[in-house]
Amino acid sequence: MGGYLAVARPVWQAARFSADRVGGDNAKQQQRAVRAEIVSPEARRVRNSDSNATLAGNSTGGWWPEPPPEEGPVEGEVKFIAELCVLPVVAIMMAAMLFGSWVSHGYYTKFIPETLCTVVVAILLGGIVRSLVAAGFFSETAFTMVDATILNLALLPIIIFEGGWFCSLPNFTHEFPYIIIFAVFGTGLSIAIIGALGQYLLPGAGGVRQSYAFAALISATDPVATLATFAQLRIAEKQPLLNTLVFGESMINDAVAIVVFNAVNSTEYEALSVVITEMATLFLGSMIFGTLLAAALVIPMRVLKLPGHTAPEVFYIFLAPYLTYAMAEALDFSGIIACLFAGIIFRVYGAQHLSDNGFRNAEAFLENMARFADTAVFILCGASAAFIRAEFLRYCFYGLFMCVFARAIMVVVCAAMSNKLKRTQQAREEDMISWKHKLMIWLSGLRGGIGLCLALQISNSWCPQADKERIVSATFFCICALLLICGTLTAPCLTLLGLAGDERPAGAAGGGDSPHIYSKEDMLKESIPEITRDKPFLFFLHWVFQLILVGPVGKQRSDHEHRRDTRWHSQWGGESSQASSEAE
After folding, report:
1. Cβ-based neighbours of 183, under 8 Å, separated by 6 or more
2. Secondary structure element (H or E) that encloses residue 252, with its range
3. d(Cα 103, Cα 517) in Å, to the nearest integer?
4. In whole angstroms, what is the distance from residue 264 CA to residue 414 CA?
5. Could you read off the pLDDT of 526-560 as tens digits, one per residue?
6. I need a surface site. Which of 350, 354, 494, 551 has the fewest CB within 10 A?
């Protein structure tokens, strides 16, 4: 079982600075050669002709080169990273955030989503960076590796955790069987369609293995892109059923895509039964691991009996997804699935140790940090698209067509299966997946950083360097093209279909009578009995967790606690702080 660790492994290799000096003289010579490749465009062009020059670096001495002799080891490494890696990435992020917001608030451009404006600005800035790379100021290899590092280790954990924190538990549990249909069967169907189309439409663009490797990495919808688009349009409040299906699918189908990709990318042949077993093991193992680790992290909140409104408690919750993600990847589990269920556990049980004020502080802080991470992902993907090579554009357009076509077939088939299952359970007509929902689910099939990281992991032992570059370019293209197309069409389609104005009251959700996603007055306790109704196992599991992690009752909240720490809340709470003060 390779798990999601296969995505993060080159990132860890790139970050192991101390390992650069354990390979002896031979490793140092290779490191100097790599530095010559990075600094000199001429040397880089010569070295690119060698199929052994890969993004993952060499196995003997690590990817990072040795600092110049006149500089100390630490100073040289810091200067090298700051100059060639951090500088272009951070500069693009700052400029794209500022100018993207400026464009979206213009008089003639205010109808354009802010995310779309940010991506367009990032693509333009990425073109400038590409010119600087051609002039030898920056390294394309270093820029790409920093992108992968930031995406995996800095942005994804908080985004997924925040999604679990604000997840609608009644909707999620009620729609879980249908989420599995979309996430498992649907992703497998999409991989099969894209792989077959790749062989038919592009017979000269690599073999069967290349086609199915691209099909696997591009079939997973990215939770970052999907959640950011829906959050801006408040789809969770207006169409809970639609939001739950898209949210659940995007969270779970990554495990399917990763396992299939690892099977294709592996040097050893794996039977279909082995792939299915690994897929189930990865999902269930990641879910159990994330749940148990989050429970272990909640126990100190009960034992220490802190006030429930202090900044360290909020920061403790904020850091939990990074610990969860890192430990899950180290144990070959999926960090995404582990963070999702960790966020749910912290929301249900950890939030009971917070006061009213502390609960609102935690919500505001997590929401702001997740929004920053969402924007950063769009910027990095947009800037990276500028490195697409012109000779691969034909393959890129075919790849985009295959993604859109396979997504349409998958949505139609999975929606029909889900509705058939719903009817056998005597579900109401409003619980069915309508044609409007199908259209929006198809339009919500965005891609993002997961596919990019998997593309960078394609092994050169079986895939020629030219084919790998073609797949990476097509991945960049599909990510940005779907962001631009879907980001433009989502809001108009919701309005034309009459879905944008159908906002349900706080007591309604997903087609039934379930409670709303969440409430700032912490109404989650009222939704637990509904979730565990007629489910003895869930009822027993909740009883055990409640008894161990919280006790008979949670933190006793009073009006005095409600007004504590107003200065901290005014700094981090933003608009919610002003709203709460007005309510008082």
Report:
1. 248, 249, 251, 252, 253, 256
2. helix 240-265
3. 32
4. 25
5. 567 667 777 788 888 888 898 899 887 655 554 44
6. 551
- Tell me how far apart the alpha carbons of residues 492 and 266 are, in angstroms, rounded to a whole number: 43
Q: How many H-runs (helices) and E-runs (strands) does the chain carry?
A: 28, 0
442 neighbors 407 (Cβ within 8 angstroms)? yes
pLDDT of the residue at 41: 43
- How far is the C-alpha of 292 from the C-alpha of 286, rounded, in Å? 10
Report which DSSP code applies to 49.
T
Q: Which residues of 169-206 are buried (b: 16+ CB within 10 A; e: fewer)?
A: bbbbbbbeebbbbbbbebbbbbbbbbbbbbeeebeebb
Q: How far apart are CA 276 and CA 258, in angstroms?
A: 12
Kindly provide the b/e burial profile for residues 87-114, where b requires at least 16 CB atoms within 10 angstroms of the residue's own CB.
Answer: ebbeebbebbbebbeebbeeeeeeebbb
Whole-number Å distance between alpha carbons of 119 and 484? 8
> How far is 87 from 100, CA to CA, in rounded Å?
19
- The CA distance from 510 to 179, in Å, is 13
Distances (CA, A) of 81 to 21, 74, 145, 279, 376: 17, 11, 11, 37, 19
Contact 207, 431 (CB under 8 A): no
Q: How far is CA 278 from CA 154, 271, 285, 332, 364, in A?
A: 27, 11, 10, 11, 38
CA dist 256 → 120, 170, 413, 424 (Å)? 31, 24, 18, 27
- For the record, the structure tokens of 342 come out as 């960790």
Helix (H, G, I), strand (E, B) or coil at 56: coil
63 φ, ψ (degrees, to nearest 5): -85, -35
Of 298 and 493, the structure prediction assigns the larger pLDDT to 298
* Amino acid residing at 151: L
- Here the tokens at position 273 are 């039964």
Q: Which amino acid is at 460?
A: N
What would the two tokens of residue 195 be? 């792989």
Burial of 313 (0-12, 13-18, 19+ CB in 10 A): buried
> CB of 313 within 8 A of CB of 233?
no
Q: Are 363 and 346 in contact (CB under 8 A)?
A: no
pLDDT in tens, 287-335: 999 999 999 999 999 999 888 888 999 999 999 999 999 999 899 888 8
Neighbours of 513 (CB within 10 A): 10
d(CA 455, CA 472): 6
* Cβ neighbours of 228 (radius 10 Å): 26
Beta-bridge partners for 509: 512
- The 8-class DSSP code of residue 63 comes to S
Rounded to whole angstroms, the Cα distance separating 34 from 20 reads: 12
